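Input/output pair, single chain:
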Amino acid sequence: MAKPNYAFEKRKRELEQKRKKEEKLLKKQQAKLAKAGEGADSAPPPEADPPSP
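Output:
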């Protein structure tokens, strides 16, 4: 009988968790940008860097 390869299973599980975490982060960033985009339409644009004396 074949011996289970626990290292492979662990690596596969870790990669899956990493992928889900990255997807969640991207989703949060997109939501944040969408929310900021909605607010930018009603708010005046930010001024450029003020000149330093």
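The two ends are 79 Å apart (CA to CA). The CA atoms of residues 26 and 36 lie 15 Å apart.
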